[in-house]
Amino acid sequence: MRKFARGILVLLLVTILGGVGSYLYEYNTIKDMYRSVAQLYVVPGEANEATLRAENGGLKDDFSIVLNSDVVLSAAKNLAGTSENLEKYLTVNSVANSNIIELVIVNPDQNTAKTYVDAIAATAVKTTTIIPVESIQILSEGTSTGDSFKPNLMLKTIRLTALVALVTFALEMLVLFFYLAFRKRPEIEDEYYDYEREYGAKSKKSSNKRFENDYIAPNVSNDAIVEFDEYISKSNKEKEAAETEAKVEETVAETEAKVDEAVVEAEIKTEEAKTEEVEIAEKAEKAEESVVETAKTETKEEPKLAEVAANEDEVAESKEVETKTEEKVEVKKKKLKIFGRVKK
Predict the structure, then answer these.
(1) What is the DSSP letter of 57?
(2) In this predicted model, what pLDDT tens digit does every residue of 287-309 receive, in sequence order?
(3) What confidence tens digit (pLDDT) does each residue in 124-170 have?
(4) Per the CB 3.0–4.6 Å rule, which of 21, 113, 150, 333 could disulfide with 30?
């Protein structure tokens, strides 16, 4: 596709440059011409009015045939004093919806053009014997404006530009045919294309496939293909490693968040255990104080022995509860140490 676009661009550029060159060439090659116009007024007879009138309302081409005849031009040459062929300079036009005939002479010299057209007009007046009309009169003599022009400049430029474009297109086609005929192909062409088809089928199934319109040029070596495959495989591995690392970091972050939550809960429970321990200690102190008071009054109040025994039992239970509480606190401290290591 790129080669096709390049060929079209070259063709357009050459055509444009050829058009400019053609215009300059034709402009400098074509001579400046001058135009001189004389007008004749024809008065047809009443009997010949219908036969001389054309469909556009003007006069028929019979006048053009007569005025371009050897009889009229020979007489005009004698009158102008020249031996040139006036027919190649003369153009006869019938003005629509009128009885006017225009004689146009184009010549490289303005004065010569006027001389020729005046001579032809003077001779045409005498052709009433050839054309059945009542009279032919000179309405206006040849003009002499001095304005030059280059006849058929644009037409010749277009033709030359088209020729340049055609030659350029032919040369491009010739170069293309030579390229297709003599370009280098792989030594093992069949194996190469089999590999390309197989690789293309596998790449469509993989997640990191190539574009479907990928095409490996025939002049690419097998080493380049292997290197490209290794590059694709390396890229896939790097992508997988990055994804795995991201997952590990996410897992570690989640674990740290859970450990932080567990540590906070353990601290809360420890505080609660300390509060319970303080309460138990206070109860124990109160129990001891009651035992002491009971001991003091033992000798005096024997009936209160049963109450003292109960207080002793209560003290024993308090100590047992205190012992269990201390064991729980030790266990929780060990857990806190473990959580502290995990967090670090």
Answers:
(1) S
(2) 777 777 776 665 555 555 555 55
(3) 888 877 777 888 899 999 988 888 888 889 999 999 999 999 999 99
(4) 150
Residue pointed to by tokens 């266990």: 331
Cβ-based neighbour number of residue 343 at 10 Å: 12
DSSP 281-299: HHHHHHHHHHHHHHHHTTT
Q: In angstroms, rounded to a whole number, what is the distance separating the alpha carbons of residues 70 and 215?
A: 75
- Within 8 A by CB and 6+ apart from 101, the residues are 39, 40, 42, 59, 63, 67, 92, 93, 94, 95
Handedness of CA 124, 128, 132, 138 (dihedral sign): positive
The neighbour count for residue 310, using CB atoms within 10 Å, is 13
216, 220, 224, 228: CA torsion to nearest 10? -10
Give the tokens for residue 300: 């005096």
